[in-house]
Design a protein that fits this description.
mainly alpha; 6 helices
């Protein structure tokens, strides 16, 4: 799945509106990762608090059980264990935007949510 820090989204929107070289559409996706990779970034930052994710669910198992769980086989076939990739080179080249790395984004988000009491203290 694609991920982007909200601070990068705000910067990209501002640059697209006001940068003199801005033209056309821009992709503001920092990168792609499996959900387990996002989870493991948190597990690395908060050992003992966030458990590491296991491997992906076998596609054959979801193809078999999916219809009973409300997951159409086409959804499983084309989306499970697939990771889309996005080309943000135009955004980087035109604006010089450097995207915040996934691990930093996840740690900052979890820390902010913990400080606000949305999740338990880390």
């Amino acid at each position: 799945m694609g991920y982007t820090d909200v601070r990068d989204i705000a910067a990209a929107h501002t640059m697209a509106a006001f940068h003199p070289n801005a033209q056309g559409r821009y992709v503001a996706v920092a990168g792609s990762a499996y959900l387990s990779e996002l989870n493991n970034a948190l597990a690395d930052a908060f050992p003992g608090v966030v458990p590491r994710a296991g491997g992906p669910v076998p596609k054959w198992l979801l193809m078999l059980l999916g219809p009973f769980l409300g997951l159409p086989r086409d959804l499983v076939k084309y989306n499970v264990n697939e990771c889309p990739h996005f080309d943000h080179s135009k955004t980087v080249n035109d604006f010089g935007l450097t995207f915040i790395p996934m691990s930093e984004m996840m740690v900052d988000q979890a820390t902010a949510m913990s400080a606000l009491g949305i999740i338990k203290k880390l």
